Amino acid sequence: MINFSKALIGAIVIHVIYFMTTFAIGYVRTMNHKPDWDAAWANPENLQSEVVFGYAPSPLLYTGSFLATVLVCGTILRLYDKLSSNSSEAGVS
What we know:
single chain, mainly alpha
């Protein structure tokens, strides 16, 4: 049960890092964006009439990603425990 808790915390940390990195990259791109008004007015056919804010994936994708990350973290923790117990039994420090 302790390995499951550690795996769950690991998955939460990985996903928080992912979302914060995505947010930070978007923020920096937004702050550094300098529109070229002259080029936009020169070609009025290319101007969009609707604003698109981005793609919103399904919540099932994030749920599956989270569960897969929990499984991977759990597997890594289990292998680490198994390898560390084998090395301590053999007298290797």
